[in-house]
Batch of 4 targets.
Target 1
Amino acid sequence: MDRVVSASDLRARVSAWRRDGLRVGFVPTMGNLHAGHYSLLARAREHADRVVASIFVNPTQFGPNEDFNRYPRTPDADREGLVAHRCDLLFEPAVEEIYPSGVASTRVEVPEVSEPLEGAMRPGHFAGVATVVTKLFNLVQPDVAVFGRKDYQQLLVIRRLVTDLRLPIDIRAAPIVREANGLAMSSRNQYLSADERARAGVIHATLETMCAAVRSGQAVRSIEESAHAALTAAGLVPDYASLRRAEDLSEPGDACCGPLVALIAARLGKTRLIDNLACDAAAGSEM
């Protein structure tokens, strides 16, 4: 695996691949890599001849009271992991390389799909995500890019961005990788104590209960209230436990039909966790 830090070196390497007729895949990350990230690389490898990964902790997607400075950075371990999982090129830029005019300059916003749930809880977060992903797409110019389904709303934002900006990029989603108790793998899981990590399995269990209730015909509001109560009883502090239309995260109403997704964000101790599950005909299937 080679490593570059400048846009010019990145473009030179990708251009050489393109001259050879090779298809380029891309996996953007913020580092502190784990099995979930490596599953994205494997997915990209299925659809591309060469795979680029980026590691960039993006300051514009963190709010003023969030954990930008606390976000774990493990560059040496990340590079070793990328080599082991057959990454061809690592792009590891400095902030100035991504934001040459400063972080408060040009912004990309994706309305509607960015507004509910995480957008309401974390104002400005998805503008930061959309901006940095657009910049990275312009730099790498991949044929295919892979994102995890764990950040479901982010996945919808990226898909809408690519559609609206007419970017010639195939967006692929990778299934959620889970721990033995159902907890979705995340860099933030390392903040959990052993007891908290065990108790966090209630999030996935609650999502499964929500989807089972959907299939049994229970009312949406009742399902959400029961989920909120279950999380609270387990010692978590829910930000939301919500059923939404899978295509755009709009509210379904109790008479809704069509694909739904259950989404949860909850705090356990000092750690905020998110997860989701498709509520289609197959019990517990992932979106």
Target 2
Amino acid sequence: MERTMAERLTAEFVGTFTLIFIGAGSIIAMQTFGVGAVGIIGIAIAHGLAIGTMVTAVGHVSGAHFNPAITIGAWITQKIKSSAAVAYIVTQLAGGTAGALMLRASLPKRVVETAAYGVPAVITGLSNGQAVLIEFILTFFLVWVVFASAIDPEGAFNKVAGLAIGFVITMDILMGGFFTGAAMNPARHFGPALVGGKWNGWWVYWVGPVAGAIVAAALYDGLIIKRPGSVAADEVPHGVGAHGEDTTA
């Protein structure tokens, strides 16, 4: 069933809100109660569960991007119209900001400020160039899995894409969490940074994820989805979303 833009944007808002409230909230919990309270494994699982759950819940509504980088990857491969892509990105940034605002409202001011609102940050000793490279690679993995499991009509995990996408986010944070925060998502940085006023190295979380998403999307779409003889190349036109919804309207 074709979904209205209002329904799709609502799904994107709620999904991105969930990522920030749960993901950044898990970092605030670790900073408040010590590493033992949550730890990097708990933070990775919190992010993975937040996205995996929401992808499963509303993937059929909006494609469940929750991430400007994923939306840009879908846009450059013509899976979403330009007007819809802009609306998605604005909504995702708004959802991320709302999630950070709700953390500030629901927790003591001292707690969220001490944890810097859970804003992803580059570890001391790591150059911004290295941080961009890490974010690039981690986002490449994420978008590759999104295309393989949610966008490719022949994907083995199409109906349970949330599981695979949640796993890759967990995997990525286990590697990159201590180095860059493993944001993989401009909205994951933007919302907490805006509310907390923490903008150091902000461009890392746009350049790395967006570049990684573009490369992964272009490679998967060009080499696998559109390969001669594939279902997508033969039957699925440009302008379809992650679950086959028509995005040309």
Target 3
Amino acid sequence: MAENQKQATLKTYVGDMYSMESHIEEALDSQVSSNADHPKASAETRRFHNMVRGQRDAMKAHLETLGGETGGAIKSAVAAVFGMAAGVIDKVRSDSISKNLRDDYTAFNHAAVGYHMLYGTALMLGDQKTADLAERHHKAYTDAIQDINQIILDVVAWEMKKDGHTVDESAAKRATQTMNKDWKQTAPSSS
């Protein structure tokens, strides 16, 4: 493969992830204030927002080192579709904190698989610097996904109580424990 073709491929993948990070950061901007009523969700949302902003900035800088542009020139189909979906969600979403977290979970999984693709692509093309960056960002998203797993039912229970429901909070803890067990059982063996 010619070096310029390799660079073009890497610029496309890095540009896709820069665009995705930008879209996720925009969605989190509004959640910083809308999730403020729940202490755990508020703290996690602020942390997610800082993480995504830092990753967006790192992807922008890396894209520029590859000779790519971050202005309006990078328009990937993946980022455009994600952006449209995020825009629609923002318009129909209620102020439910649990729904915000559910949407974040979806966006973070989308970003995680994108970083997995970038990581593999960079390794296959022999670009260790891009691979290292993609691996760090992938790990940050998988950690954030697991963090949402741990608080989502606490938020749901809190919202149900606000709506006047009597809630068995031990059931929420049991459900989270079951989900954690399911994740462990479905993890591939390290062979």
Target 4
Amino acid sequence: MKVEEKLSFEQYWNDKRFESKKFDSGSLIGKNGGNIYEPLLSGEWKQHPSFHTVPRFSRHENEKNKRRDLSGINVLVSRKFVYFGQAAISLPQDLAGCLPTARGHKCNFPHAAVEKWESFIENILTRQSGMIAYPIDFPKINENNFE
């Protein structure tokens, strides 16, 4: 993704553009929205049902996931992204060492590696963008029967 905007978690929750990212038990996609942290008047946060609660999609907050998720200070927003999911592609061997390996990973890569990675991503974005396939842990389904 090419980051276009940074929001606080509170801004993300309150921004009408991201209402569709809030939990909706009526569909698998609605259950997997990323807008799951509601700021409370007390200064605390409510974790709504999601992939991050235990069990998944329950009303039982997962404090470990909640702490980890809220340890970042920004929600990154973009309309320029590619999500491959079940249709993941192979990366060129020379880019394998230039990838974050986990959530929250931060690193200072050499300028040449950053340029190579940006070129690779820009090339993909000129051909396709958005969600290409559903996440790997979703059932194997097509768009016609996705509920």
